[in-house]
Amino acid sequence: MKLWVLRHGEAEPHGSNHHDSERALTAHGREEVLRSAALLIGQPLTAIYASPYLRAQETAQLVRDALGFEPEIRTVEWLTPETDPDKVAEQLVSVSNVLLVSHNPLVGNLLSYLQHGAGHPPEKVGTAGLAEINGDELLIGSMKLKGIKHP
Q: In order of start, what are the domains of the chain with their CATH numbers?
């Protein structure tokens, strides 16, 4: 099975009048996302799952448009920043070749969890960082990180 995990692009700073979930991408963030989206061209994506937060939704939409990906984005609560990696893994048992668009700390924690199991330091993933992780099946602690590409 193969998974891609994309952290959202650079977002507006956390302002006092905006809830964290309402922060939008900056112009720079949009460019970052498009550079990462280019790395997915030709990959056998079956679905795009995204956090409901605005910056993740914008990121997912940019990727979808760049790839000409037909299916709708699947917005899921289990990709918000503070979700436990094991909750995400439960959702992934029957899928492959999907893109997850999410946030730190979840992105770093999830990548670490899938490779090493619980209790290991998170992978470092910058904005619009794209990780590819795969394995014969979804086995916690035994997936291989093919790499994390930063725009």
A: 2-10+21-149 (3.40.50.1240)
